[in-house]
Write a structure and sequence with these properties.
alpha+beta, 12 helices, globular, binds flavin-adenine dinucleotide
Length: 406
Amino acid sequence: MDLNFTAEEQSFREEVRGFLRAKLPPEISRKVLGGKRLAKDDFVRWQKLLHAQGWGAAGWPAAFGGTGWNAVQQHIFDEECADAGAPMQLPFGLKMVAPVIMAFGNPAQQQRFLPRIIDGTDWWCQGYSEPGSGSDLASLKMRAVREGDQYVVNGQKTWTTLGQHADWIFCLVRTSTEGRQQEGISFLLIDMKTPGITVRPIIMLDGEHEINEVWFEEVKVPAENLIGEENKGWTYAKFLLGHERTGIAGVGRSKRELKKLKEIARKETSAGRPLIEDQRFRDRIAQVELELMALEITNLRVISSDSATEGEKKRAPGPEASILKVKGSEIQQMLTELKMQALGHYALPWLDEGLDADWSGDAAMPAYADHAPPLSGQYFNMRKTTIYGGSNEIQKNIISQMILGL
Ligand SMILES: Cc1cc2nc3c(=O)[nH]c(=O)nc-3n(C[C@H](O)[C@H](O)[C@H](O)COP(=O)(O)OP(=O)(O)OC[C@H]3O[C@@H](n4cnc5c(N)ncnc54)[C@H](O)[C@@H]3O)c2cc1C
């Protein structure tokens, strides 16, 4: 297997680098590279800049305004964007609901929703989980009752990431209590401005507001917002989860964080010598680097088979997406642990204002200002990665049954 990039691929990489140098706003990349807090506007501004270049949706087919890039090009693009400090393109619209709308939505839905996702107009969030229905998602209870040409929705979603900014939420709702649980679920697109919706913050372990509870009380949703057929939502939900798990691998971002870890280990000292020369610490860096290289190759294999299209529709990634989810999340956690260890006690203080872009340090702790402010927050925040997108225990069940046939 030839793992080297071809001359065309190298020149594509140069093109992406040139674009990033010219168009990625430095005030945004400084925040990303420094681990600072990003505002909604940073994400939206970057999406609009990408869209203006024709690069708004790397993974979409050209027929829907995507780049039509192959798997290697998408990989190079992700890697370069992460390395340059571009904000992550949020997955909820681009990588979750859009493939579902392309595969199962009708032409009117495709024309209505897809252009507003790719140009950054609409911010989407994901309404799958409910209290008591996370791993056991098919037990979900949020009810949608058809009344004429609308559904009336009552219930609650939870852990809704960045729902506080969202214009739209895609929801799994219960439309029937007959038969198997999976057969009474539908996939509904709901405008977050509809009367009866309340968003309540959940503050995370790192002190940040990233997730929410979303309550629905007599919310009236036009029936034209139903995707596909009523009670067939479970099929669409599973299709989406494959895309979600592939995206979670985060290879480009982990490569950037590995670089940061090495930078810290070169500056910090242990017994008077750079930490990077400490044999035991070097071993741990090497171990995570090897895991990351293996993940990168696996990721390329999965996205290559995923980009095979069936007509205009994208094929759902198979159970191998679970491998990416498990390994990707473990690597992200390992990197935050090693960065904490590299800074020792300097990594421990948690300082809210240290995440503000204009914070220039604390005179009482000069050494703290350099790398330390985001580290404890990142460490706590990254605990989420083995829970969301389907917990790692559930992914291991999928791997054992669907891949290993146990
Ligand atoms: C930061 C964060 C953001 C999230 N964002 C969203 C979002 O935007 N939208 C959304 O819909 N959801 C979101 N989620 C929810 C996420 O998908 C669920 O938390 C996840 O599916 C686990 O469900 P649960 O929390 O109900 O835990 P439970 O299902 O109650 O699981 C509890 C524990 O039991 C284990 N367990 C459960 N069943 C089994 C089994 N059969 N075999 C082995 N072990 C098992 C689990 O692995 C876990 O360790 C988010 C979660 C987090 C933490």
